[in-house]
Amino acid sequence: MIHLTSMGVLAVRKDVLQRLERLAFALFLLALAGSLLLVWKGNLDARVSRMIDPYPPFTPIPGLEGRKVGLIAGHTGSDSGAVCPDGLREVDVNHAIAVRLAERLRQAGLQVDVLGEFDDRLPGYRADALLSIHADSCIDATGFKVARASFSIIPDADDRLVACLYRMYGETTGLPRHQSSITHDMTQYHAFRVIDPRTPAAIIETGFLGGDRRLLTKEQDRVVYGLARGIICFLKGEQP
Ligand SMILES: [Zn+2]
């Protein structure tokens, strides 16, 4: 049996208080370490998600909300375009790119139409920009090219759209320019003749189904990101 004197009681109380203090301090340290860990983990998560998705979704861009963009998915509703020996069809590549590009541009707040090659909506089509998306043949070549109507009534605007696409698409994909192969099919493209002539318009060959097949089929995120940046560059009035 233990008989505590009043001094003894005080000593025990002091001891308990000291223990409580140490406990509180330990809890404080634990909470601090926990929150530091959470912050670090948050940064890590952001870094990891950037590693997994180098092309994160867009958010609405002030000033661009509601602006209208038309995308022609080359050959859609008409024919297959280029067909490679193993059956890869240009029309399928173009269509997949156009649909994903539309999705991305809508994230930025734009109003987007995905149009067929000879879409009923094309005659008199009025928008802030129109882009026709095609891919080149199955030969073992690499590069992309962009053109506008040779008979454009808004050559400055069209040239800026072409320049924005050259700059941003080239920068994002790393593809070289293949300007020497621009044909009349591009500069006299049928849709340029029927749309409202005040609609800035361009046509792009995104790469070769031969030499650039990997990019065009397996890295469409990159293709789409480059095209979206090009269109946004133009709509924001940037001089590339
Ligand atoms: Zn084509």
Rg over CA atoms, rounded to whole Å, is 30 Å
CATH homologous superfamily of the largest domain? Zn-dependent exopeptidases
* Main sheet properties: 5 strands, mixed
In CATH, what is the class of the largest domain? Answer: Alpha Beta
Strand content: 5-15%
Structural class: alpha/beta
Distance between the ends: 91 Å
CATH topology of the largest domain: Aminopeptidase
Helix content: 40-55%
CATH architecture of the largest domain: 3-Layer(aba) Sandwich
Shape category: elongated
Low-confidence stretches: none
Number of strands: 5
Report the average pLDDT across residues. Answer: 91
The arrangement of helices and strands along the chain is: HEHEEEHHHEHH
Integer count of domains = 2
| Ligand catalogue | zinc ion
Q: Specify the number of helices.
A: 7
What does this entry look like structurally?
This protein is of the alpha/beta class. The chain has helices at residues 6-52, 90-107, 155-173, 184-187, 190-194, 213-218, 220-235; strands spanning 68-73, 111-115, 129-136, 145-147, 201-208. It has a five-stranded mixed sheet. The termini are far apart. Zinc ion (ZN) binds next to loops.
Question: Summarize this, please?
Answer:
This protein has 240 residues and is an alpha/beta fold. It has seven helices and five strands; from the N terminus they run αβαβββαααβαα.
Write the layout of secondary structure elements.
Elements: H1 6-52, E1 68-73, H2 90-107, E2 111-115, E3 129-136, E4 145-147, H3 155-173, H4 184-187, H5 190-194, E5 201-208, H6 213-218, H7 220-235
Parallel strand pairs: 1-2, 1-3, 3-5
Antiparallel strand pairs: 4-5
Helix pairs in contact: 2-7, 3-7
The structure holds zinc ion.
